[in-house]
Amino acid sequence: MKLSFSAQDEQFRTEVAGWLNANLTGEFEKLKFRGGPGDEHMYPEERKAWEKKLAEGGWTCVGWPAEHGGRACSIEQQVIFFEEYARAGAPGRVGHIGEGLTGPTLIAFGSEAQKEKYLPGIVSGEELWCQGYSEPGAGSDLANVKTKARFDEDRGQWILNGQKVWTSLAHEADYCFVIARTDPDSVAHKGLGFFLIKMDQPGVEIRPIEQITGTSEFNEVFFDEAECDAQDIVGAPGDGWKVAMGLLGFERGVSTLGQQMQFQNELDEVVALAKTNGAARDPIIRQRIARAHAELKIMRYNSMRMLSGQSGSDGSLQKEALIYKLFWATWHRGLGELAMDVMGPECEILDDGPYELNRLQSMYLFVRSDTIYGGTNQIQRNIIAERGLGMPKEPRVTAK
C-alpha cells in the first residue's frame, strides 16, 4: 500500500483544489458542507445542477476508463480527488449511485449497447440512478428476493412485479437497477436477473418513507407490470447474483472514499462545536474525539490497503474489504452519539412541532440506520466469519 504521493499526484491535487475553490461560488456557495446523512433533502435541484457543473469540468467518474468518459485516474489520484472534495466542503453527491455502482457494473458486465445507452448520462450528470435490492422480506438476505420478472414474447419485454424498500433517492432517480427472479421456481441465489428499469413509467409507484429526521431519503418502490426492454437485462437470466455481487464489490471499493469525505466534515463540525461551547474542556469528550479521529484515519488507511489489492475490473476485493461495512457503520453511529453529547442535554428537547433539527441532530437520528442498511452488523459478522475466516456457517433454525 502506498501512503505517499508522487510529484505528479501533487500537481493533480493542485488542479482539483483550484477547480473546486473557483467553482464553489455564486449559486453553489450555499451547497458547502450540505447534503450529508440527515441533510440529504437540502437543495436537491441545486445539487443536481452541481452534478452537471462537475461534468462540465471533467470531474465526474474520475476513475472510469477514458473510453467510457472518465479520467482513468489511478487509485492515488482518486484518493486525492475525494480528499480535496472534502477539504473544499463540496456537497453530497446525488449522482453517486450511478457513478459508483451502476457505471462500474455496466463496464464490467454490461453489453456494448448498454454501455453506449447508459454511461454517457451518468458522466454528464444528467441521469440519476437508484438501487432496487432490498425487499420487506429480503434485506441483508438478498437471495430471498421475491420480485418477479417474466419475459412477454408478444411485447418483446421483461415485465416486473414486486416491491422494493429503503430505496435511497428513488424520488429523484431516472433509472433503477433491480434484482428480480426470472425463474419463478428458483430459490436462493439461483434464477435471478439484473435489470435496468426506467422509473418514469405507469408501472412504477414510489412511496416516500418518512424517517425520524422528518425527511424522506428512503422510499418504497412498487412494480406493477413495469416494463423493461429485452436488451436491458445485464448478462443472461440467472446471472443476476453474479452481477449483484460484483456491484457490491464496487460499493465497498473506491466509492467508500467519497463516504469518508462526509465523515470528516461531520467530525470537523463536532470538533468546532466542542471548542466553541466548552465541551472540549471535558477530558472524556476530548478522549472520545481523539478516538473518533484516530479511527477515521484507520478507516482511510484500511480503504487504501483494500483498494491497492483490488484484483480485477469486476469489483472483486481482498478479504480485508469484508470488515469495512461493519467498521464504518459502527464508527458513524458512535459519531452521532458523540455529537449529541457535545451539544449537551438541551439538544434532546425541542419546543414543538414541526421540529427544526440542526445538522448534527439530523445526523444522529439518521445514523441509527447505518448498522442496518447495506447489511446489518450481525450479517456482516457472519460474512467475516464464513468468507473471511473460513469458519462453519451459522446453523439454520427451521420452525417445527
TrEMBL record:
InterPro entries per the UniProt record, alphabetical: Acyl-CoA_Oxase/DH_mid-dom, Acyl-CoA_Oxase/DH_mid-dom_sf, AcylCo_DH-like_C, AcylCo_DH/oxidase_C, AcylCoA_DH/ox_N, AcylCoA_DH/ox_N_sf, AcylCoA_DH/oxidase_NM_dom_sf, Mycobact_Acyl-CoA_DH
Flavoprotein found in the keyword field: yes
Ranges of residues in domain Acyl-CoA dehydrogenase/oxidase N-terminal: 8-126
Keyword vocabulary terms for this entry: FAD, Flavoprotein, Oxidoreductase
Domain Acyl-CoA oxidase/dehydrogenase middle: 130-224
The keyword Zinc is annotated on this UniProt entry: no
Domain Acyl-CoA dehydrogenase/oxidase C-terminal: 238-388
Cofactor: FAD
Homology family: Belongs to the acyl-CoA dehydrogenase family.
Protein name, per record: Acyl-CoA dehydrogenase
Organism annotation: Candidatus Seongchinamella marina
